[in-house]
Specification:
By secondary structure, the chain is of the alpha/beta class. It is 49% helix and 13% strand. It has eleven helices and eight strands. Helix 6 packs across helix 9, helix 6 packs across helix 10 and helix 9 runs antiparallel to helix 10.
């Protein structure tokens, strides 16, 4: 590893979860030495690191001394804590390599992390990832912004696009917030309206109308909703970050506070114990909505209307 501004050859991924291990594996196939530290991580994360061909080191101090850049890829709620741990390792080792926060966080959260990293003497790049992990459809897009963002254009390959959009920290995070506001936000609206229809006793009639007038949307619901509980715990914090992003410019935050509440309901179903690798592919939309509607605090029939 070198602190010089040159082509990175060794990349740390913290942490090799569903997205992180997919990106790390893709980087490995494209000639990079991909490194991680599993201290405090789960057996699932360790298994994914092994599947992805990661090189594992025992401590963050050793990790930052062996790599050319650190990519943070994990759930939003853990982003600031991880940055603080890595910053401590930077301070101890006097390392100035880039720390790239690739998490789904609000621009002002990104700015707090930037301040932490820069105070430790290292460089900071704002990042965000749109799309599924490599190998699951269209290649993901890694958006980057900040003064050093162009140094990571070399990570681009047929398996992952890299888009440097500006030298302003916060821009990459902002794109993710607005994009996920649509995609994951709309999905929760679908769950909510179906669960409410079930609680009101008109789900079958609503689905018949949707099949007649909104069939593509109904098919999308049937395809996507059954897999949501396994991921819901990760997306609660993302919706909260989006709500904070909206509020920061005077837009209503209620849309995505509501979306976070729907993901909490999904996380309360029995299906939430699944991981992305163990999702029951035979589960139906009906089963998922029945379980979710059962967690609503009040049903129509509870009010004496049934």
């Amino acid at each position: 590893m070198s602190n010089e501004t040159s082509r990175p050859r060794s990349i740390a991924i913290l942490s090799p979860g569903d997205m992180g291990h997919g990106i790390g594996a893709a980087l490995g196939r494209n000639g990079f030495d991909v490194v991680t530290c599993l201290a405090g991580r789960s057996p699932r994360t360790a298994a994914l690191a092994e599947q992805g061909g990661f090189r594992i080191v025992p401590t963050l101090s050793e990790l930052v001394n062996e790599v050319d850049a650190v990519l943070s890829i994990l759930v939003p709620a853990q982003a600031e804590a991880l940055a603080a741990e890595v910053a401590h390792a930077f301070e101890q080792s006097r390392i100035t390599i880039p720390f790239v926060d690739c998490n789904a966080i609000a621009p002002h959260t990104t700015e707090r992390i930037r301040a932490t990293i820069v105070a430790a003497g290292a460089r900071f790049i704002d990042g965000s990832i749109i799309g599924p992990p490599p190998g699951r459809g269209s290649p993901p897009r890694l958006y980057l912004s900040g003064a050093d963002a162009k140094s990571l254009q070399v990570l681009a390959s047929s398996e992952m696009a890299v888009k440097v959009i500006s030298d302003r920290v916060g821009d990459a995070s902002s794109i993710k917030m607005c994009y996920a506001a649509l995609t994951k936000g709309t999905t929760t609206l679908h769950v909510a309206l179906l669960a409410v229809a079930r609680a009101l006793g008109v789900q079958a009639e609503l689905e018949a109308e949707l099949a007649f007038s909104q069939d593509m949307t109904l098919q999308q619901m049937r395809q996507s909703i059954p897999s949501l509980p396994a991921n819901a715990h990760r997306w609660i914090g993302e919706m909260e970050e989006i709500a904070a992003t909206f509020a920061s410019v005077g837009a209503p935050e209620g849309f995505h506070q509501g979306a976070a509440a729907i993901y909490r309901l999904l996380d309360g179903t029995a299906f939430a114990s699944e991981s992305p690798e163990t999702i029951d592919s035979t589960r139906t939309l009906e089963e998922t909505i029945t379980a979710t509607a059962g967690l609503l605090s009040v049903s129509y029939r509870d009010q004496g209307n049934g």
